[in-house]
Amino acid sequence: MTYSYDPRNIFARILRGEIPTKTVLDNEYALAFRDIAPKAPLHILVIPKGPYVNADHFATGASDAEIAGFAKAVAEVTRQSRVNPDGGKGYRLIANAGEHGLQEVPHYHVHVLAGRHLGPLLVD
Ligand code: 5GP
Question: Is the model's pLDDT at 1 over the cut of 80?
């Protein structure tokens, strides 16, 4: 599968500095910022700096350094936010993809949700 990245998507615009965000972390590999419509007391989005559409595109198209840097950025966000289970109360990571995953923004991102008991994974 060849993914086509649309550089007009809203997270691409955020990466270019065209739209302000509440930044949590910014380094060579990732940007983390507060979700504009939080679904939990803590709701942070972590996105890679590179042009990847979803998790599949990222895993198959990104370099090992990009993948490692992104994973470490997610861990840094949970540690900084004090929700890491090693001392904190835990969190949930969600990465939506495609039609059934209801992905709205076509730039790969992980939702970090925390700050309350999050209930079952899916509610029918
Ligand atoms: P998806 O459904 O693609 O997994 O999630 C996209 C997320 O991006 C949603 O939770 C939505 O609230 C968030 N979002 C959409 N536009 C913006 C924006 O301009 N700024 C921020 N901070 N979050 C956004």
Answer: no
